[in-house]
Write a structure and sequence with these properties.
alpha/beta, Enolase-like, domain 1, TIM Barrel, 5-stranded parallel β-sheet, 4-stranded antiparallel β-sheet, 13 helices
Amino acid sequence: MKATTIEVGLYKIPSRHAQENAIARFTAYEWIIVRIKFSNNIEGIGWTYTQGKGGSAIFHLLVDYWAKELLSEDDLDPLTLNKKVWSLSYSYGLEGLSRLAYATIDIALWDALAKQSDLPLYEMLGGSKSPKVKAYRSGIDLNFSLQDLVNDIRKYKDLGFKAFKIKIGKPNFEEDIERVKAVKEVIGNYPLMVDVNRGWNFQDTVKRGKILYDLGVYWLEEPIEADLLDQYKLLREKLEIPIAAGESLYNKFEQTMLILEKCVDIVQLDVLRSGGITEWMKYAQLADSLGLPMAPHFGEEISVQVLSAIKNGLFLEHLPGSNLHDSGVLKSSLTFEEGYAIPPNKPGHGIEFNWEKLSNYQIMYAKVT
């Protein structure tokens, strides 16, 4: 496919409530959205995000450099991009912002290819014709009062969700225990996961992990810094509670080692931070060969597609208040039924933006031809 124009927009959309975890507080997400039009009149759409900072760097990387290079290609597809991206980013590195930029283009290309084949993306990636993925209610909710937390959990239980995750990492661990017990009272035997967002050290995690296991917690997420892979491996040896991590890794070597060395029980690599669908599917296949399940971080609008296409998918993270899904800027999105996520049954990824509403949040825009 020959690309004829590439449009890039940067949008800052307020989250529906203040977001707070053990190490950060923020109130908006930046979304960088790419529209690629091809000579066959098909348009592919891709996107990535930041937690309110760094979006302009991704925007300029795409507009000032990558777009012109990609428009010079006679036949642009995900595998061609996958090979080209190394040379595109050689002088400043492939990790971090470069991977987020890469993801926008990669997703747009997969979208266009699936549309060209008149197939939903999940089918083109190898999924069934009628997929559904187990989903859990997630939340960046450490700032919720105990009563507000319980009320929110009850709301999503009433909506049919059968798995839940909350933030922990209060200065006093007794408060974390209180929150876990209160939520467990509401959800009963349904899985409850907890996320520390790298807020603890190794020694505290060993002590607290044993207590959380006794409380019946389903998994303990990112208890320590993300790149301490040797310590994650030790935690698996010392604790019975399953360990989940991977969302904060941008480095290909670290992402691979996380899986190869079995540093965690549940692999949470983020589709967008990994560099898009092409890269993430490689990790999913590697994890499957080693018996590890995938439960990707965030990005539910595209994560539902890849989870629908693999055998070792465990859970989709539904993050109300922080996602695109309920932001008011989409015309078409995934749906939820009785605790399952269902991708759009349309050619491509099926995510359709309401460009008029989205324009209210526009910070930067450029069209490259």
